Amino acid sequence: MSNKQEQSVYYVPGAILLAGFVIAGAIYFSNKDNSAPVAVNKPSTPAKTNTAGAPKAISADEHILGNPNAEVKIVEYSDTECPFCKRHQVTMNSIIDTYGKDGKVAWVYRHFPLDQLHSKARKEAEATECANELGGNKSFWAMLNTIYSKTPGNNGLDAAQLPVFAKEIGLDVTKFNACLSSGKMAATVEAQYQDGVKAGARGTPYNVVVLNNAINKATETTLTNFISQNGLGDNITISSDKKRIILNGALPEAVLKTLIDTLTK
């Protein structure tokens, strides 16, 4: 599969769990036409088992919001110029606002720039890493959120705005520019991209829910029924070891909350 097209997909859920709520999920797929959204209204499909490689182990020096020891850790591979990632950023910030304070969820952000689609995304990723070097994890998230909030997506952000953003979040602009122009963060971004490839990412946003313990049979059944009844078999898959749940695309907040509530009850 290649990263050459992206597409939004709209799901109409079934009667259970989210009755009456229209799911608007946006997914990047490599082998589908991107000329128009596709309305999915099909019979329920069973949940799939995913055998993709696991993300590298989460380390303390990564970009983490929430409790690093949380039972539910959402590892996101994302592209700052992807419009669906822009939407997902808002969703994930809301998820952390809801569940982070109770220590139930952690959010780990990793870069996955789609160079063939968004040539500016890689340098923007480096900009967030420069922010991290100069101001720590807090500055990383501030820069990341600023880029997502200001870019129109699809390579629409003027690179000249990056130093402006750095100043807005309180960084030394001279040092920021020196870091960004040096290319010193390129290896960091590339390493995260390659990790995403190994973890099964082919588009963005791509999320892997990493659990401390394998889900039990009852939880698996509940999740499988939810996935099946809401036609999410192409978007949510359970790993063969039952310790990871793979999420393809910018799933609605209501879907993520249902998953989290099921996993943490």
Parts with pLDDT < 50 across at least 5 consecutive residues: 1-47
Percent helix range: 25-40%
Mean pLDDT: 84
N-to-C span: 37 Å
Number of strands: 10
Structural class: alpha/beta
Strand content: 15-25%
What sort of overall outline do the alpha carbons produce when their principal axes are compared? elongated
- CATH topology value: Glutaredoxin
What is the count of distinct domains?
A: 1
**Element order: H for helix, E for strand:** EEEEEEHEHHHHEHEEH
CATH superfamily (homologous) name: Glutaredoxin
Structure characterization notes:
This protein has 265 residues and is an alpha/beta fold. It has one domain (7-264): Glutaredoxin. It is 39% helix and 18% strand. A 7-stranded mixed sheet has the order 4-9-10-8-6-7-5. The chain has a 3-stranded mixed sheet with strand order 2-1-3, with no helix packed on it. Helix 2 packs antiparallel against helix 4 (173-182). It starts with 6 loop residues before the first strand and ends with a helix.
List keywords for this structure.
alpha/beta; three-stranded mixed beta sheet; seven-stranded mixed beta sheet; disordered N terminus; Glutaredoxin; elongated
Secondary structure blueprint with pairings:
Elements: E1 7-11, E2 23-27, E3 38-40, E4 48-50, E5 64-66, E6 72-78, H1 83-99, E7 105-111, H2 121-150, H3 161-168, H4 173-182, H5 186-198, E8 206-211, H6 217-229, E9 236-239, E10 244-248, H7 253-264
Parallel strand pairs: 1-3, 4-9, 6-7
Antiparallel strand pairs: 1-2, 5-7, 6-8, 8-10, 9-10
Helix pairs in contact: 2-4
